Predict the 3D structure of the following.
Amino acid sequence: MKKIEAIIREDKLNDVKQALYKIGIVGMNVIEVRGHGRDGGIELVGRTGTYRIDLLPKIQINIVLSDHNVQRTIDTICESARTGATGDGIIFVYPVEDVIRIRTGERGRDALMYPGDIDEQRK
Ligand SMILES: Nc1ncnc2c1ncn2[C@@H]1O[C@H](COP(=O)(O)OP(=O)(O)OP(=O)(O)O)[C@@H](O)[C@H]1O
Ligand SMILES: [Mg+2]
């Protein structure tokens, strides 16, 4: 199992979410974050001169999923989040030790199954 942490533009959240639902990614959580990549934010020109906003608002989407669904999910996020301009975002992939669904006690891949999800769509 892996965790995909995708940092995307705020105004791309809806497109990315819809694209993910379409391929059957069900479980996810979303956090509002602030950060910068290699550009270090943006320069703005005001009346008194230029100033820098170093931490820009971004959206972080977290998805824990089975290894065999990782590449398809990354491709879907890239296609739906890309504008081609700097600041499109970044994706991190982490190994996940275990998952426990609290209500049922299901663990591991069993805890990552949802009706109509990416694995059921493939069958
Ligand atoms: N190394 C990093 N560690 C943690 N978060 C990061 C890292 N790099 C970027 N981020 C997060 O991702 C967001 C988007 O980064 P951004 O798209 O500017 O990346 P970049 O590497 O500068 O690529 P680009 O050249 O397309 O701008 C940042 O605002 C920040 O929240
Ligand atoms: Mg950048």
